[in-house]
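Hi D.,

Good news: the full-assembly prediction came through. Inputs first.
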Amino acid sequence: MDPISALAQGLTVALQPMNLLFALVGVLLGTAVGVLPGIGPALTVALLLPVTFKLDPAGSLIMFAGIYYGGMYGGSTTAILINTPGESASLATALEGNKMAKAGRGGPALATAAIGSFVAGTIATIGIVFLAPWLVEVAIRFGPEDYFALMCVAFITVSATFGASPIRGLTSLFVGLTLGLVGIDKLTGQSRLHFGVPELLDGIEITTLAVGLFAVGEALYVVSRRHLVQDTLEPVRGSLWMTAQDWARSWKPWLRGTLFGFPIGALPAGGAEIPTFLSYSTERRLTKYPQEFGHGAIEGVAGPEAANNASAAGTLVPLLTLGLPTSATAAMLLAGFQQYGLNPGPLLFAERPELVWGLIASLFIANFMLLILNLPLVGLWVRLLSIPQPWLYAGILVFATMGTIAAKPSVVELIMLAVFGVMGYLMRRHDFPIAPVVIGLILGPVAEQQLRRALAISLGDPLVLVQSPMSATLLAIALIALIAPFAMRGLGRFRSDAD
Amino acid sequence: MQSQTRRVDRVGIVVAALLAVLAGVVIWDMTTLTISQTYGVGPKAMPIVVASGLALLSIGNLVLAFRGGGEEREQPTMLPILLILGGLGAVIALIGIGGGFIPAVTILFAATAAAFGRRAILIDLAIGFVLGTAAYLMFAKLLSLSLPMGPLERLF
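Then the structure:
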């Protein structure tokens, strides 16, 4: 089926009133959690997993995707108005955006962010429409050894690109992989690392880990540094509308940002930080108004914000076609698929086209909704920021507890929530990235399954991993990605010694 | 700027030790599995891979720690952290003895609000109670989620 007719079929699914409602709830929730500091889209999806367990899969997945897109829009509002980016992907936006807000140009900053997000989101979603079927054609020929190799690439890139150093990222990843070992082995029925606790036989709940790390860990971290930081909310002054000059200065950064964001998001290279900062530095170099950079240049908001949204859309390509999550939110979306027994990949495109294409089509609708929600209604969202911090975090923890206990009604689950919360706090405090832990827990068991399947087919011959050209290439890429940061740091040290 | 006095990063040493212990636990657990002959590799392969990775990272973290450069971290304020953990502990205890969801999250709400500097414990308890009741009614009754029941929840 060609992409256009598949998309048309998807639109008929996405336009069903129920699914439109799910998309609307998703984008509303997404924008809200994006605006609020302390909760992001990954945590929101994690909390909603147990709640949506009994709902229609297509509807909830459309809602989750809406949350993902909405979080990206909402994050820019916080970044611009209080200079505390809701998530790391908005760091670059905060650089110039907050300066613009301080200079009384908060309105145009929000507008260029919203319109740029819309342009980038729409172009990138068109990218998904054409790239996904092609990638599915490639992926259909993948054997288990190729999948295993692909996951190795994702493990390395995800943990090496997040965080301060590759060692720290890999440490987080292996903690996640260890947690993934817990429970009954599906192939032989033997249980690993359960220490006689029956609750551990089913393995570690993804919800408990994600909520503990993201919600409890974040609350503990913020409260421990409360005396250090003082946020000031910049009121939106002046016109919301962009002048002709603002438009002229914005449209090229939007397109360039999209060009950075989508491919980097679509490659299993992880993170929206890289494309946003690439876009920021590019705009800084190309601008006709270099004197404005550092004091609120609109290009510095338009570009990164577009890159941010395009990369969010890009991460959906490996997620849908290969079942490969490359960001924390994508990992939670994968968990969303898994809770309905759905495994994203070529098979899902063949067996449930209405679901996959309905989801893709709903992304266009979500983008439209977000543009409308964010431009005229931005004042409403800003008011969310006036919720007192104590009540905000108290509410987050109440819902965190509820999500955890609803996923599995047991006190053991709550104890694990507290333990993971302390772990998340310590990891934040000592600069260990969080996302690789979640990705390790979700992807580790899948990788093990593929590896064992590959070795079972080859009757135990490990050479199968390098005999397939695809798998050999991917493993080589993984190896290079693993060694490159160390080699480059070695070079850097050599250079600094020579000075 | 590279200073001459490179402190050994104590956190790094702790992390390295924890990783080594974790690797040991994974290996020990692996040896308790009974061997079952399958084609390819059995359930023991992945623990070996993971434990090897943990061991290597333990060494890596140790090297980083001795290279020093762990930046000075400001001292966290412990009291609020303990308040939140105390709130979570109360939730675990209350739900453990069958006290139910609503009283548990009421305490958690008030404890967290207090940790974030609020000094109106009665008002916060009331808000927590209303929030917990609303959440319970919406999710347990409307969406038929199973939340822990106590004497209070049985009234609904």
